[in-house]
């Protein structure tokens, strides 16, 4: 029959990890590591912590954790890989170094399947880039990163594992993993087990077997004890204050009776006040409404009067206009007697035609004045004479002489600076012009002028003349006879045109006077014709205007009569309004007196209840008198209540003082009413505390007995294995008498009446207080000591407080391994898992001890 698989790590592969460039160890069966010191055997075994221990703070290495990370994972190509058989098949748990940039931290990852080194190295055994590795592993259900909480959940099979399940440490209880982590660290290092560590480990392993492994008396009972102490004293105090409190309640009841009546009386006053005020208001509203109606009528009448007067003025204006229009029409009959409109229209046409002729003539002669025209003729004549002389002397002109010695460009440049008129002068002796007694000297002078020219700049005595800025003469105008003849013709035409225009200009004054006379006549005739046309139209309207005038006069008479009637009605309405205003003033004085009486009263507090009151007076004065009397009585009683209340509060030191008086009174009344119940409650609370403390102490005593039984079972497991030549090895639980005696022998009287024998009650309360002060916390681990008892074949027994050095070194190693394996079995129960551990110094163990360890390990 095939044995069921045991889940656990099968193989370890290291890449650039610790001292190993590459290491591969199969651990699915026992492995014997042989090598000199410092070759890396211990560091290889310690790496198992990265598989089983979730928290770096719980790991144990020979160096600080920061140095340990740097040692195992010096670069980003560092990997530690654990191939594990799990309930879900083979899975690989990997640890990847993050390099110096991340302070040599690491990350865990998990993927499914067997460990294939080819996923991490290439054909030359060079480690691939991490990104490439994880991209390849993503095809194998890669889960990354695996945080400490995820690893813990995956190992135990709990939730929050990022869907990773390893099941290498099946959890039977919620704290199974914490206990496993402690024992795994012990068995991996085979460190010394101190007594306090072993005690705590035993208590953690068997925690579910205990009822109450620790008692916090201070937390569980100190508050209740203080309350019993406080409540018992308060009850005694209340009994002493019962009489003054009852007197206070009596005065309070009387005061409250007065306060109960005052709101009803106040409401009755308010209702009576509102009734009187409403009657006055109603009459006032009637008067105001009547007055408003009268004022409205008066306003409407005044508006009508105003409109009538405005209409009357409008009628008068229209009447005056019609009268004047008819008078003007009668005068026009005389003015137009014998008027001939057709003759006037014919004359208007003749004048208009002559006026158009004059405008045309004046348009040509008014552009320039007579003086301007005469100057133009004179200037044109002078130019004409010069051009004729130039034409006659063209053959002997200076320009022709100069062309014999200079080109046109040189001539143009020279006479742009000199007077170009010199070019037209004659150079012979017959006519006045230019005399040249020494022509060579003149030509030399001109050449000297050209010698000062550089490009387009002529420099004479440091003065620069830019020739481009000057107008250069066009030599064709001085040498071409056709151009000169054409200019002569143009000047002749200009002189002729200017002369004609001058003749017209000399006649302008008379033409202007004639034009003005015709314009005035045309305007006069037009006005006469327009006036005549208007007169004819008015003659047609004369009957209509006379009829309209008669109608306006009749309307004016009717309006004046109506205005007189309306003004008399306004006077009557204003008199009625004055009488109503007088009555309104009386109402205002009555309301003021009513308000004064109400304001003189002190109103009840808003918190006083509104309750019905019998026989409330209906008369206003009687109602006010009763209210004042009741209010004064309330004030006197309130003062007495306040004094009594202050006395009670001073005696109780304000213990029952509430947020207000009502809260304080209610608290005192409740305290009096609950004295019997409070006595019973305090005694019940006392009994609960006493019984609870006794029960807790009894439970922790029973847990101590349970622990002894469990240790006996552990000893039976250890007894199955032979260790060296020892006849017996067992753990011994030794009670601490100074603690256990107090727990087992303490007695508390829980049936004692606290309010019977006062002295006995004080002693009992004091005893509990002393217990809570001396032993506020009781822990099971404080009740016993652990030791290892060893018996030799010769009958001698020895006790050792710690697993430090028991007999020989080999014996000590065997005991450490067996104790830790036995504790590990207690934690994991019947789980089918393999947990690797390291057995150092095998040479120190004899065959018997080795067989015992192998037997226990299987």
Structure overview:
21% of the residues are buried. Strand 8 (453-454) and strand 9 form a beta hairpin. The protein has helices spanning 41-46, 49-52, 65-72, 130-137, 148-156, 176-189, 195-205, 217-240, 242-335, 341-365, 370-392, 398-403, 408-417, 439-451, 476-479, 481-506, 508-599, 620-652, 661-673, 675-718, 737-745, 758-774, 809-828, 847-857; strands at 8-17, 20-26, 79-86, 89-97, 106-112, 143-146, 214-215, 453-454, 457-460, 463-466, 728-735, 778-779, 784-791, 797-800. Helix 8 (217-240) packs antiparallel against helix 22 (758-774) and helix 11 packs antiparallel against helix 16 (481-506). The chain is α+β, with helices and mostly antiparallel strands and 858 residues long. The strands form four sheets. It has a six-stranded antiparallel sheet with strand order 2-1-3-4-5-6. The chain has a three-stranded antiparallel sheet with strand order 8-9-10. The longest helix is centred in the middle third of the chain and has 94 residues, at 242-335. Helix content is 61%, strand content 9%.
Mean pLDDT: 79
* Largest beta sheet: strand ordering: 2-1-3-4-5-6
**Helix fraction by DSSP (H/I, runs of at least 4):** 55-70%
Q: What's the overall geometry?
A: flat
Q: Which structural class should the secondary elements be placed in?
A: alpha+beta
Subunit arrangement of the protein: single chain
Radius of gyration over all CA atoms, rounded: 69 Å
Number of helices: 24
How far apart the termini lie comes to: 18 Å
Please give the number of β-strands.
14
User: Which band does the percent of strand residues land in?
Assistant: 5-15%
**Spans of 5+ residues with little confidence (pLDDT < 50)?**
none
Biggest beta sheet attributes: 6 strands, antiparallel
């Amino acid at each position: 029959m095939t044995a069921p698989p045991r889940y656990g790590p099968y193989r370890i592969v290291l890449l650039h990890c610790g001292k190993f460039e590459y290491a591969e160890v199969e651990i699915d069966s026992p492995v014997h590591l042989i090598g000199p010191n410092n070759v890396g055997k211990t560091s290889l075994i310690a790496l198992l912590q990265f598989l089983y221990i979730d928290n770096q703070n719980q790991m144990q290495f020979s160096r600080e954790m920061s140095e340990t990370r740097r040692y195992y994972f010096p670069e980003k190509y560092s990997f530690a890989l654990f191939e594990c058989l799990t309930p879900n098949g083979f899975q690989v748990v990997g640890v990847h170094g993050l390099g110096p940039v991340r302070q040599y931290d690491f990350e865990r990852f998990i993927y499914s399947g067997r460990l294939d080194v080819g996923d991490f190295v290439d054909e030359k055994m060079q480690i691939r880039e991490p990104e490439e590795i994880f991209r390849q592993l993503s095809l194998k259900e890669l889960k990354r990163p695996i945080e400490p909480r995820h690893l813990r959940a995956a190992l135990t099979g709990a939730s929050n594992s990022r869907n990773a399940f390893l099941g290498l440490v099946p959890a039977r209880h919620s704290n199974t993993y914490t206990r496993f982590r402690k024992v795994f660290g012990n068995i991996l290092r085979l460190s010394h087990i101190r007594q306090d560590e072993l005690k705590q480990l035993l208590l953690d392993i068997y925690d579910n077997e205990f009822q109450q492994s620790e008692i916090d008396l201070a937390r569980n009972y100190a508050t209740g004890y203080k309350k019993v102490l406080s409540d018992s004293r308060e009850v005694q105090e209340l009994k002493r204050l019962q009489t003054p409190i009852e007197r206070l309640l009596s005065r309070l009841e009387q005061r409250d009776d007065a306060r109960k009546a005052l709101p009803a009386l106040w409401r009755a006053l308010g209702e009576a006040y509102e009734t009187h005020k409403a009657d006055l208001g109603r009459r006032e509203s009637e008067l105001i409404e009547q007055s408003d109606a009268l004022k409205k009528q008066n306003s409407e009448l005044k508006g009508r009067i105003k409109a009538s007067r405005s209409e009357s003025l409008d009628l008068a204006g229209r009447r005056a206009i019609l009268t004047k229009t008819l008078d003007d029409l009668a005068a026009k009959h005389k003015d137009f007697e014998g008027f001939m409109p057709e003759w006037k229209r014919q004359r208007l046409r003749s004048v208009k035609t002559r006026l158009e002729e004059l405008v045309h003539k004046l348009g040509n002669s008014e552009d320039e004045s007579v003086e301007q025209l005469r100057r133009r003729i004179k200037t044109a004549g002078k130019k004409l004479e010069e051009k004729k002389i130039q034409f006659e002397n063209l053959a002997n002109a200076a320009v022709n002489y100069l062309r014999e010695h200079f080109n046109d460009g040189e001539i143009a440049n020279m006479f742009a600076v000199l007077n170009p008129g010199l070019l037209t002068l004659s150079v012979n002796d017959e006519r006045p012009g230019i005399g040249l007694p020494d022509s060579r000297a003149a030509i030399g002078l001109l050449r000297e002028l050209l010698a000062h020219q550089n490009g387009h700049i002529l420099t004479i005595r440091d003065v620069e003349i830019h020739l481009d800025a000057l107008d250069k003469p066009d030599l064709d105008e001085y040498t071409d006879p056709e151009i000169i003849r054409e200019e002569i013709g143009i000047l002749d035409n200009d002189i002729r045109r200017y002369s004609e225009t001058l003749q017209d200009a000399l006649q302008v004054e008379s033409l202007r006077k004639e034009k003005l006379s015709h314009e005035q006549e045309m305007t006069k005739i037009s006005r006469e014709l327009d006036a005549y046309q208007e007169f004819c139209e008015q003659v047609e309207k004369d009957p209509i205007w006379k009829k309209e005038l008669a109608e306006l006069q009749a309307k004016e008479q009717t309006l004046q009569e109506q205005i007189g009637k309306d003004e008399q009605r306004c006077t009557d309405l204003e008199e009625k309004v004055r009488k109503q205003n007088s009555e309104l003033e009386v109402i205002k004085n009555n309301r003021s007196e009513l308000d004064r009486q109400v304001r003189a009263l002190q109103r009840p507090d808003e918190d006083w209840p509104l309750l019905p009151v019998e026989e409330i007076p209906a008369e206003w004065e009687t109602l006010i008198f009763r209210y004042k009397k009741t209010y004064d009585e309330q004030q006197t009683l309130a003062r007495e209540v306040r004094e009594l209340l202050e006395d009670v509060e001073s005696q109780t030191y304000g213990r029952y003082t509430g947020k207000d008086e009502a809260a304080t009174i209610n608290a005192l009344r409740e305290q009096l009413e609950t004295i019997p119940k409070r006595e019973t409650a305090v005694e019940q609370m006392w009994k609960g505390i006493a019984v609870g403390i006794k029960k807790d102490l009894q439970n922790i005593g029973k847990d101590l007995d349970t622990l002894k039984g469990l240790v006996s079972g552990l000893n039976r497991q250890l007894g199955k294995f032979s260790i060296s030549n020892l006849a017996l090895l067992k753990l011994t639980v030794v009670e601490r008498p100074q603690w256990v005696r107090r727990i087992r022998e303490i007695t508390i009287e829980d049936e004692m009446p606290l309010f019977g024998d006062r002295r006995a009650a004080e002693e009992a309360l004091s005893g509990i207080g002393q217990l809570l002060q001396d032993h506020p916390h009781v822990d099971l681990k404080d009740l016993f000591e652990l030791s290892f008892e060893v018996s030799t074949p010769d009958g001698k027994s020895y006790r050792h407080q710690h697993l430090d050095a028991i007999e020989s070194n080999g014996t000590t190693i065997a005991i450490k391994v067996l104790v830790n394996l036995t504790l590990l079995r207690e934690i994991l129960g019947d789980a089918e898992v393999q947990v690797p551990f390291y057995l150092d110094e095998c040479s120190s163990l004899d065959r018997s001890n080795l067989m015992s360890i192998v037997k226990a390990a299987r």
